[in-house]
Design goal:
61 residues; mainly alpha; 1 helix; rod-shaped
């Protein structure tokens, strides 16, 4: 009976750990994805600004 209780507790702990692991994994994934999107947006804005400045400085090119 005690062994059965320990087995059940161990199973429940493993399930809870797995659920928490998935939540953390999802949160980290979303945070990294948002950070990457922000960096890509900033790069695109910087590229556009650089191109605009280049056109103003060197209009004949």
């Amino acid at each position: 009976m005690i062994e059965l209780s320990f087995s059940e507790i161990e199973r429940e702990v493993k399930e809870e750990f797995q659920e928490q692991k998935e939540v953390v994994k999802s949160a980290v994934y979303n945070e990294l994805r948002n950070e990457l999107a922000t960096k890509e947006f900033v790069r695109a804005e910087a590229d556009a600004l650089r191109d605009e400045m280049h056109r103003e400085i060197f209009p004949s090119f």
